[in-house]
Amino acid sequence: MRTALILILLVLYLAFRSIALSLIIFTAVPLSAVGGIIALYLRQIPFSISAGIGFIALFGVAVLNGIVLVAAYQTKTPFKGKALLRHILYASQTRLRPVLLTASVATLGFLPMAFSTGEGAEVQRPLATVVIGGLLMSTALTLLLLPMLYQLVLKVSFRFKHVKLFLIMGLLLSNILNAQKTISYQMVLDAAYKNSPDQKQNMLQYQFNLEQAAAFRQPTGLQITSEYGQFNSIYTDTRIGIEHNISFLIKYRFKAAEFKQQQVLYSVLNQQSNNSLQLQCSQLFADWIYLYQKQKL
Questions:
Q1: CB neighbours (10 Å) of residue 45?
Q2: What is the chain's mean pLDDT, rounded?
């Protein structure tokens, strides 16, 4: 995707021989990207490879409206002040229909794909949704922002040399595109450990076993009772009792061994679950890297 954006900038610069005009037209790219993301969100479609291809196609189509408008603004006769404003308004009015036709033709062309339900719909719908949403957003905002930016550029004198400004722009674009979050194998493994239901179940069973063992080792409390009155005869008696449950030592021994074996069992099950989960993550991560490298080629 970075290569596509750099090529678009290069073609714009070769067409207009101006970094300022190239950047003005290039503003349609982020605007169209926002529209594509909003369209995916509204239709509850997750991002996929086909959606990424749709973004690449969208960036190339989105700059067409800017090219049409800027080509209409360009004239050999210099304008200043109110004359410049009148010229921009007149050129915008004359190019309004071509701009709308360009956007509507592309949108209507992708409309059947956006609502496709037949074979291959899972590939067609994300691609068409991105293109349609991005074109609608970029067309509307380009018609509003591009005339103002063009007027602003003509008022401000750019003192930088073209080569230096182009290098700065390339560095900024590279930093922005490289700011994406890198997903490592350890991050995938940590997320799998955290969200695995088997891992959670084994840990809960292990903790429950530890709590049971701790509760069994604690001695039961003493029970002291007292009675006063006539129990067996007409005479008044007083009775005091102390009760304490003491199990046989061999019972404690067997119970402690049972808890220990259960802890070993849960530890083994947890380790087996870890190994199985790690194997699955390794296979999926390797498949993902293979598909990613294949897509780059």
A1: 17
A2: 74
